[in-house]
Amino acid sequence: MNLTSRISAGQGGFVLFAITPPRQSTPAEQLPEIADATIERLRHLDLDGLVLYDIDDESSRNPNERPFPFSPTIDPSDYRSEYLQQWDAPVVVYRAVGKYQREELAAWLTAQDADRTLTVMVGAASSGTVAPVSLADAQALRSELHPNLLLGGVAIPERHSRRENEHLRLIAKQEAGCRFFVTQVVYDLNAAKNLVSDYRYECEARGQNPVPIVFTFSACGSMKTLEFLRWLGVDVPRWIENDLRHATNPLQASLDQAIATAVDLIDFCRRLGVPFGLNIESVSIRREEIEASVELAAQLTAHVRSAAP
Amino acid sequence: MNLTSRISAGQGGFVLFAITPPRQSTPAEQLPEIADATIERLRHLDLDGLVLYDIDDESSRNPNERPFPFSPTIDPSDYRSEYLQQWDAPVVVYRAVGKYQREELAAWLTAQDADRTLTVMVGAASSGTVAPVSLADAQALRSELHPNLLLGGVAIPERHSRRENEHLRLIAKQEAGCRFFVTQVVYDLNAAKNLVSDYRYECEARGQNPVPIVFTFSACGSMKTLEFLRWLGVDVPRWIENDLRHATNPLQASLDQAIATAVDLIDFCRRLGVPFGLNIESVSIRREEIEASVELAAQLTAHVRSAAP
């Protein structure tokens, strides 16, 4: 079963790899080789799909200086259609809905092939921002214009730690059409388990089936990348920070830690009967961190395939 | 090596079982059989020592109603000398120092056999309480009157989650003579790892050796017991609460969870080179929870002995 049929059936067990499109400032003549190098890296992995992020300037949500400067990136849907045609598995295209006019979004939704494309809609980064289209508007547009296009939403375990209602937000998103959820990078295993558990029992109480939750993992090879993860709102426990800071090989330590966290979470989801997927990304553009994330994807794919119940 | 020589050498790898002495209201003629039943339960375990708690009325530290009513218990040192003479391994006798006059405490300290007795001194439950003897006074008394009597202190991972300085408190207690630490019941693995990690790297930065941290585990078979753990200040993650609430056999679920947490923490301490001990208690007086804690001690002792590096 491919990604879209699995998600349509409410099933998990899939593995994705997430890419941020190149910066808009990248010379156009370099884009084909960047895309080819990416496809080449991922070709030997047994992936079920790609994720393409849509990066918005999120400086409004965090008053602290961004550890890596923001630079606008190419539209993920344009990047895919122009440079990633070789990739034939489904692609989850993110839409930072606050960036678009209503007509643009409507045209994009209508034009998609629901067998090849899924979308995750993300609201504006800060509630202080006034966007032309709200997340609720965008979700309603999809229901109206293209109800077969599979819709996902973001799930944030860290928000559950602070407000204890993220499971209710997920259920509200399900009511708005979401058929899967994707988390931020998971470092806080406890927070992720709390969210999965509360979500699962709330679904049961309402007589609903849980939909797949896709957990994101990444290798982190430097304190600068860790600082960036924190800036993005990821809770990195002190002991993991200490491990990385004192490791002879931080990238290997991070890989080991991500695998241990993923394996624990997979066991937990299986025990609770919550469908899950995995999503691997590199949050940095350093070559060695990208390669470590590819290695992470290889190991986690092997684990998911071998241990499938 | 027995418990006292291990701790004197800064080594871990030991397993203790903790008992709260019977209530003062217990008819005196029942005490011998209660003590015998306890010894009988523990005799087949390969324990390195007993812990005897000294219970103070802690209602001052928590304005919420205590889920199990407070009832004064027999002095642990008296209980030991009168009813637990059959027990020949060392005993860690708690002293809630706020309960005693200076002379009482001095006399007790002086009278102990340092080969058979260790002590953990605990300060008053709330800083609003004025006690005749402060924790610092009591620690100083031991240094002065009986420096060979091994002293322990409490370590609270939950406090580290909130204030991020528990590792510094441990080091200050080490400077006041502590040679080991005992935690509350551990349910929040992440909090325990954060404390161990910060403590280990702070010791390294100061050129000190870490002393054994004794992690306490318990079986919890009911929501009432869980509520009591929370009242005592133990952070029980939501997913563990949900597991117990929905389990067909909550006691077995709790046992499985405690073993998984202990095994993870043991691996973590070994990897970081922090000496550790285990302490198993029953926080409730229900027979089945006591028996489950004995079973927990049996399984964890086997694990520690078999997997010793």
UniProtKB/TrEMBL annotation, chains A, B:
| InterPro entries linked to this entry | FAD-linked_oxidoreductase-like, Mehydrof_redctse-like
Any single GO molecular-function term of the entry would be: methylenetetrahydrofolate reductase [NAD(P)H] activity
Using the record for this protein, list the coiled-coil segments as residue ranges, or answer none: none
The cofactors named for this UniProt entry are: FAD
Its annotated pathway? One-carbon metabolism; tetrahydrofolate interconversion
Q: Reply yes or no: does the keyword Flavoprotein apply.
A: yes
Q: Which domain of life is it from?
A: Bacteria
* Keyword Cell inner membrane on entry: no
Q: Which Pfam families match?
A: MTHFR
Q: Which UniProt keywords apply?
A: FAD, Flavoprotein, Oxidoreductase
Stated family? Belongs to the methylenetetrahydrofolate reductase family.
What's the name of the protein?
Methylenetetrahydrofolate reductase
User: What organism does this protein naturally occur in?
Assistant: Svornostia abyssi
